[in-house]
Amino acid sequence: MPTSTDTVARHTSFDVEAVRALFPTLQRSVHGDKPLVYLDNAATSQKPTAVIDRVRKYYAEDNSNVHRGVHRLSQIATDAYEGARERIAAFINAAHSHEIIYTRGTTEGINLVAFTLGQSGLDGDADIIISEMEHHSNIVPWQMLCERTGANLRVIPVDDRGELRYDAYREMLSDRTALVAIGHISNSLGTINPVREMIRDAHAAGALVLIDGAQSTQHMRVDVQELDCDFFAFSGHKMFGPTGIGVLYGKESILNDLPPFQGGGDMIDHVSFDGTTYDSLPHKFEAGTPHIAGAVGLAEAVAFIESLDMEAVAAHESDLLAYATEQLRAIDGLRIVGEASEKASVISFLIGETHPYDVGTLLDQMGIAVRTGHHCTEPLMDRYGIPGTVRASFALYNTREDVDRLVDALQRIQPMLA
Ligand code: 7TS
Questions:
Q1: Domains (ranges, CATH) in the chain?
Q2: Which portions of the chain are predicted below pLDDT 50?
Q3: Phi, psi angles (nearest 5°) of residue 354
């Protein structure tokens, strides 16, 4: 079975056309003959053939349950599943592969931490700090934790440009702060938060830090040891992998101190009616038959990313961001929401008073896929007093031509929006 590393020549620079050819969805048209321009990558990315083939191979040739069998297929499936964990650990530079907990995605990873922290005797006086730009997945689990324990949710405000008010964050940190949960990159604004500095300051106050990495692993190299975060959650489907699989990284000593999340098969050491003991990491947090195909598919997505020169990819994406920002700004009545100095390739905008949904629907008819609405960041939209935005989010396989198609379509529909 060839891996993507074999089939993709290592790009020491970045050949976007060669990479596009690896993605079947990018070759299709929609609404008849309109070639698809896919600009909804913050919601989910497309999948390269290597990932699709790897998932197919698992089901077609190796399908078996893991950890439970002496038979050949079960060994193959277990090796693939555990080998994927090692590959993913290396990808984010975790110190140990047992610090990689498979989840359904970022949402489940954050819920795992919020739930188990609540079960581990969190002080009712404790503060949990999040920010105004968080995705609902990094808000609601903490609200639920606060309801259960009496802890207080503190929210770092965002300024008009879409940057965190760092002064307010510093003032919020205290010896009551139990945990800071912060998005690495905002899915609505594109803001790249200064997480390294935030982690350092939180640790100085004695707090743990969870980074919501849903929007970062596809754009930048993540090194959890260098960041020194205590937890890092991400989703496979946003980084060219399958849906329904994600990862929660946690530092070994901290994961060891937390109680299990869900009970069931695979997470136990011994079960009896007199009492049950739990398995060690990572199995303690992985109850039930896991998403084996998802895990091997995610490892293949990691192989795909690692086959690229990520510095060249970053340069390509930053060129797309600069080019799209300049072109969009030239459109009459168009306002960009989120102009932080450090941004990933996500652009939210509004045209006059037009509802984002109407813009998105017209763009769709021209083959351009953008997302409209509040992007699961309702408090952030309230902060700006807007119902939502139109969001174009670029991945490494997008091109200046995609930007031109978007801009051209917006220019054509603008007279209809008056
Ligand atoms: N955190 C951030 C920053 C996200 O962007 C998302 C998904 C999540 C958490 C949740 O990830 P999941 O894989 O568990 O669903 N963001 C989006 C989006 O922007 N549009 O659709 C999903």
A1: 5-35+309-417 (3.90.1150.10), 53-306 (3.40.640.10)
A2: 1-11
A3: -65, 140
Residue 392 pairs in a beta bridge with: 347
The number of the ligand 1 atom at minimal distance from the alpha carbon of 238 is 13
pLDDT tens digits, residue range 350-389?
999 999 999 999 999 999 999 999 999 999 999 999 999 9
Å from CA of 180 to ligand 1 middle: 18
Over residues 247-274, the pLDDT tens digits come to 999 999 999 999 999 999 999 999 999 9
**Ligand 1 closest atom vs CA 40:** 20
Residue 303 and residue 87 in contact, taking contact as beta carbons nearer than 8 Å: yes
Give the number of other Cβ atoms within 10 Å of residue 234's Cβ.
28
DSSP per residue, 206-261: T-EEEEE-TTTTTTS---HHHHT-SEEEEEGGGGTS-TT-EEEEE-HHHHHHSPPS
Alpha-carbon distance 198 to 183, whole Å?
Answer: 11
Pairing of strands 152-156, 127-131: parallel
Residues with a catalytic annotation lie at 376
Q: What is the pTM of this model?
A: 0.96
Q: Which residues line ligand 1 (CB under 6 A)?
A: 42-43, 105-107, 135, 137-138, 183, 187, 212, 214-215, 235, 371, 375-376
Residue 12: per-residue pLDDT = 54
